[in-house]
Amino acid sequence: MRLHPFSETGASAIVLSSENYYAADFLVAHVRVEGGAIKSILPKVFQGGEEVLLSIRDFVTIMGNRENLLYEEPSLTQYKEGAVGVKVGYEGKSYQYYPYMWVDKDFALVRGWINGFPKKMAEISMTRFHPLLDQLSVPRRGAVIGGYAVRGGSPLLRLKVELLEEVERPPSFGPTILIRDYPSEGEGEAEVLELVELKVQDLRFSDVWRGKAEVQVGGGVNDEMNYVKVLQPISGYYYRTAFKVTGTRLLRRLKWEELF
User: Fold this and answer.
1) What does the pLDDT average to over 215-222?
2) Has this prediction a pTM greater than 0.85?
3) In angstroms, rounded to a whole number, what is the distance separating the alpha carbons of residues 19 and 199?
4) How far is residue 163's CA from residue 63's CA, in Å, rounded to a whole number?
5) What are phi and psi of 224, to 5 degrees?
6) How many CB atoms lie within 10 A of CB 179?
């Protein structure tokens, strides 16, 4: 992968590989939303939009074969994320589309933009388990986990889940569908507007718990979360997951008038 800042070695690039490994703790609220409102932030090529997964995530990641970053620069292997994932239909198949996503590290932001994730920078925090902390050593019935995302002075999202039962798998809306958008800025320049599917391999889960969710949705002048009108929390989840992302698969090239 070639990416700024350039050098002969490529070691200064903000993203070091197109193949990336992830392991994470997920805090999720599965909610029903007002379909008429959320259509304002869904491209017209999609159908549906009444179910949403609101999530806060705590990641450990490795870019390509750079395992040395785990001990030489741990900051470049850790980040937190907040996300709004909407269940949509496209050509008869169910997908998850992200109209909003926030992270707290620059490499995670740029890496997401390359794939088509709409990432912005925000302050994100999430409850963390520790085996020596008696009050919250492991996921268990009755444990309460929380997390939030705040951007600038605007509270965007706050989640709280009380764990009730261990289950086999978390909810899924299907593969992730994305829009890669790189507009031209001068005459003769190429413009990229593509509908793509994220290529994910080796997806695994552990410690999957379902429970009762509480949700607060905020927003700000530059984050139109007012279109995410929660009608009813369906359930909450905590789980651990790991996977590998190897890029995207082109579904079709788009024109802006097909989106909004």
Assistant:
1) 96
2) yes
3) 10
4) 33
5) -80, 65
6) 19
